[in-house]
From TrEMBL:
Gene Ontology process terms (BP): glucose metabolic process; xylulose metabolic process
Protein family membership: Belongs to the short-chain dehydrogenases/reductases (SDR) family.
Protein name: DER reductase
Record-linked Gene3D superfamilies: NAD(P)-binding Rossmann-like Domain
GO molecular-function terms, A-Z: carbonyl reductase (NADPH) activity; L-xylulose reductase (NADPH) activity
Organism placement in taxonomy: Eukaryota, Metazoa, Chordata, Craniata, Vertebrata
Keywords from the named record: NADP, Oxidoreductase
Pfam families the record matches: adh_short_C2 (PF13561)
Complex and partners: Homotetramer.
Length: 199
């Protein structure tokens, strides 16, 4: 879909859980100046019913893949000697417990802390690392997990702005954190939650 707007774009279709294939494909795709880690899964299960498969899949995609892709890209940035920016897409669920979200909340909390450590260690190389932490976003995954009117009403009622986020709300926040307008911002989490965390 991006090809007509960005003819120079080079799509890579990867299973990020496949460590070796990711290393080969991403390693050959540089050089990089910017990175957005957006891949995620949300397998919702009550705490007492969490399966090993759900935990493994969530850790693989929501945390391990971010660490691995960021390592590959950051090493290239350092080798080039040019400044860079990394934005990891986290969630308000990293900071607030949600029913049936034990694994999702945990992996997003881990992602927030990973991002802070990355910011600390990559800062001397002039690489900034931040997270964007949205509320429910009206993507396909968001619609699937929040299509129940009772469930969504309970969440929306806790959001002072009274609505879920649209994709552009998140994209615009990411663009800010990638740009020079946030040149002094690293190790931070930008909440795009309509005020959910203050309610």
């Amino acid at each position: 879909a991006l090809a007509p707007q960005c003819p120079d774009i080079e799509p890579l279709c990867l299973d990020l859980v496949d460590w070796d294939a990711t290393e080969a494909a991403v390693g050959a795709a540089g050089p990089f100046e910017l990175l957005v880690n957006n891949a995620a899964v949300a397998v919702l299960q009550p705490f007492l019913e969490v399966t090993r498969a759900a935990l493994d899949r969530s850790l693989d995609v929501n945390l391990r893949a971010v660490l691995h892709v960021s390592q590959i890209v950051a090493r290239q940035m350092i080798a080039q000697g040019t400044p860079g920016a990394i934005v990891n897409v986290s969630s308000q669920a990293s900071q607030r417990a949600l029913r049936d979200h034990a694994v999702y909340c945990s992996t997003k909390s881990a992602l927030d802390m990973l991002s802070k450590v990355m910011a600390m260690e990559l800062g001397p190389h002039k690489i900034r690392v931040n997270t964007v932490n949205p509320t429910v976003v009206m993507t396909d995954m968001g619609r699937i997990n929040w299509s129940d009117p009772q469930k969504s009403a309970a969440m929306i009622n806790r959001i002072p702005l009274g609505k879920f986020a649209e994709v552009d709300d998140v994209v615009n926040s990411i663009l800010f954190l990638l740009s020079d307008k946030s040149a002094m911002t690293t190790g931070s989490s930008l909440m795009v939650d309509g005020g959910f965390l203050v309610s």
